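User: quick one, fold this
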Amino acid sequence: MRWLNLLLLGLYPISWFAPLLRAGLLPIFGLSEISVISGLQSLWGTDVFLALLVTVFALFAPMLKTIGLALVQFNLLDRKSLPVLNLIGKFAMADIFLVALYITLSKGIGVGTIETAWGLYLFTFCILGSIVLGALESRKPVTPREHAPETD
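Assistant:
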């Protein structure tokens, strides 16, 4: 499980630059690809507060949770931090919900065209994978070595 978690450290940045969706006003004009990073760039120019929230949920929360989980798995961080790390991972899922909501709303309006792209699936896989790995790590029994007192 350690290596799967470390794999997420490489997959997250790929998913941030991968196209989440393709959107356009009319199909004849072509579709623009939107990624987490390009969406954040647009948000920083229009709504700084929302951009800050999305940056925390989409970039910092998943990486913080994954790094924290890796530290636990390599016995560099106490297992007591797992509930907090799992909570952080659930916050990271919030932006996937928002993207799905925006896609649903824009399709309901019927003015433009929106298609999901492979990056949305990769990003969702990373978030869900992190949640599953965190849950599995929480269920592992504590080994005596992890609670051994430090000796000088």
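User: anything notable?
Assistant: The chain has one domain: 2-20+34-140.
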